[in-house]
DNA sequence: CCCGGAATGGTAAACGTTTTCCATCCTGCC
DNA sequence: GGCAGGATGGAAAACGTTTACCATTCCGGG
């Protein structure tokens, strides 16, 4: 069907070695006349090197595996896009794998990716379980983690300072005078969820407000989960004038549920999210949230992968980016009605508490 | 690093041919005793066949290329997920390619995918340009189009009846008494956009309402584009009490912009979208929209691909699914305030027109 | 005139499979 | 006992590259 290097060699009247040398641009020099003859033959026959043959010989396939929990959660496509953009610029292809947060599926994928001889793996996922990660490292497969990294494991990673992000979100609420702030967390097993919870606690404790377990719920990072947590909180009579959610999806679900219970946003309850997905600015009221530089994180992760593949120093580097609080309307802050400035415990306005 | 078939053969005391026969389960029978010896050796050495070597030999790589305009547009991940799910169940891997709707990039990807010997291509994109598609067909590469298909080209495709969907959306509005209905279309070059526009026109003309070009704008399928179209419409004084948008993203952008202009939703203006992305039910008011079975479309496309790869009849089959109108709150219909039933031109209520 | 070495390009052995032949060994039948 | 023919499994040739070696040519210097 498509021309092989052999046919090009014959057409150009040279050996296959020479053709290989000119098309793969190896260090070996070939004279200008022959180079041009080869190039002419290549053009004439429409030759394209077969990448799988090349991969077999060079033991480098130019593919990397991307493992995400669920590509239809808008947080991950943004990262995937960054990864894909720099990968394709570098001539690499990316294999997409959806695990649905299922460890068994993740392991299965690891197997098929290894069989496919991917050059490296980017995990935009991973729970607390690190067994297979360690194994990969031992096997020498380049791995970079993005957006999520398990607790005490020394691996390359591109992250955001989750704790600080959640702290800033909470501080924003405190600055606006809120004192009873609820927290909608993620799955308690996920490190990323724990860090955000910790940030929330930090902020509260810094101003002397005790953290009240009755105001904390755990969701699943989906909108419905956020709604469910709010419903549970309200049903059991928790009192709060604001809520920080561990991600935007849950924040949006929470907003919907709060509305269903007759709460006005942001007047009765302020809410802030985490991630800054596209829809954060599209819901009403526009969601105040902690932005992660998702696209950039994807780019950085892939760039680090490129370094690793290029034979760079393999000692793990952990890149932690700063999150950025984006103030929109869901806390009422951007309308300039609320007092701005440092607050101390006990000060600040009292809103009519929810329930 | 990892064991090869040769080492397994040695360990089991058989030839590589035999090992190949047992691990790849070819038609050739091998006796139970030897099979077990081989299997034992495989287990002992942790052998996994190298898929790139296999691909080179069999000329089948077990990968398919997925080409989407932009994975961060939530419509496509839903499709991708369907594709990926059935692909992985069939042992195939999918290579993700983002074209940003750029034909040059699309062509580049086609090249690299061919070099990588993908077994088939799924396009969740494609404008009016069909040159490269025809070429692929001539080359015998299995191709299936999903969600978008150019006008007069005979290729496998999984689609939705866009025209009918848009017609039903418009009819819904007509039934609610709207007479001045604006349309936010997609890029005029995209077949899918033209079909939806046609459906809108159909509905209007069926009740004798002339379509008014002054109420039609063209966006880019993004939220900001939808907002821009609304702004343009309002600025030039177009009068309408409802708008149908060619996709949800634009509908959501339109809602935001309408609100900025002081219009209440759905009381002053009703809006209906197209696609039913997750966020359609998360915005406020919840968006009435024409649902596409996105995940299912992805599955069907991949299943068709599997048939094609299995050597099924290659005469193109065009699967067109029925869209489904999902009535939520953005038209005010679900609150039961509007008269329901057949309407005729000129009848129906008059709302205070926009501008 | 000879020789060392740089420049160029060819030969052939991989890379890890699959698969086509073939060889061998049974088994049962005449 | 010879033999047809089915089972079984081995040898080796691909698949399309890359690359380590090696051969040739050419040049300048002694």
Mean pLDDT of chain A: 91
Shape category of chain A: elongated
The percent range for helix content of chain A is 40-55%
Structural class designation of chain A:
alpha/beta
DSSP, total strands of chain A: 12
Strand order of the largest sheet of chain A: 2-1-3-4-5-11
What count of helical segments of chain A does DSSP give? 12
Quaternary state reads: homodimer
Give the terminus-to-terminus CA distance of chain A: 72 Å
* Proportion of residues in β-strands of chain A: 15-25%
Rounded Rg of chain A: 26 Å
Helices and strands, with pairings:
The structure is a homodimer of 355-residue chains.
Chain A lengths: L4 H8 L3 H9 L7 H14 L5 H8 L4 E6 L6 H15 L3 E6 L4 H13 L4 E4 L7 H9 L3 E4 L9 E5 L1 H14 L5 E5 L5 H16 L9 E3 L4 H13 L6 E4 L2 H13 L9 E6 L12 E4 L2 H16 L8 E4 L2 E3 L29
Chain A binds a DNA duplex (30 and 30 nucleotides) through helix 2 and helix 4.
């Amino acid at each position: 069907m498509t021309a092989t290097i052999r046919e090009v060699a014959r057409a150009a009247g040279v050996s296959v070695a020479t053709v290989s040398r000119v098309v793969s641009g190896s260090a070996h020099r070939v004279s200008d006349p022959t180079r041009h003859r080869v190039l002419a033959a290549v053009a004439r026959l429409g030759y394209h090197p077969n990448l799988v043959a090349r991969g077999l010989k060079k033991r480098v396939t130019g593919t990397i595996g991307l493992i995400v929990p669920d590509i239809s959660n808008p947080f991950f496509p943004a990262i995937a896009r960054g990864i894909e953009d720099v990968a394709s610029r570098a001539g690499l292809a990316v294999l997409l794998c959806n695990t649905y947060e299922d460890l068994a599926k993740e392991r299965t994928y690891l197997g098929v990716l290894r069989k496919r001889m991917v050059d490296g793996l980017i995990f935009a996922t991973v729970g607390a379980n690190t067994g297979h990660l360690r194994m990969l490292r031992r096997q020498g497969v380049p791995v970079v983690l993005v957006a999520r990294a398990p607790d005490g494991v020394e691996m390359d990673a591109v992250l955001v300072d989750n704790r600080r992000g959640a702290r800033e979100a909470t501080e924003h609420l405190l600055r606006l005078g809120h004192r009873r702030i609820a927290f909608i967390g993620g799955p308690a097993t996920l490190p990323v969820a724990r860090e955000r919870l910790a940030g929330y606690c930090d902020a509260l404790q810094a101003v002397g407000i005790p953290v009240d377990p009755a105001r904390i719920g755990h969701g699943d990072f989906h909108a419905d989960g956020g709604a469910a947590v709010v419903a549970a909180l309200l049903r059991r009579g928790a009192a709060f004038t604001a809520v920080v959610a561990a991600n935007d999806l849950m924040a949006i679900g929470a907003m919907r549920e709060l509305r269903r219970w007759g709460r006005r946003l942001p007047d009765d309850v302020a809410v802030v999210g985490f991630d800054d997905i596209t829809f954060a600015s599209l819901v009403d009221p526009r969601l105040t949230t902690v932005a992660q530089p998702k696209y950039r994180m994807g780019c950085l992760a892939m760039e680090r992968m490129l370094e690793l593949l290029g034979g760079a120093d393999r000692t793990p580097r952990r890149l932690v980016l700063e999150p950025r609080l984006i103030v929109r309307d869901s806390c009422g802050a951007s309308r300039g009605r609320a007092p701005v400035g440092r607050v101390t415990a006990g000060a600040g306005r009292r809103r009519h508490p929810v329930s």
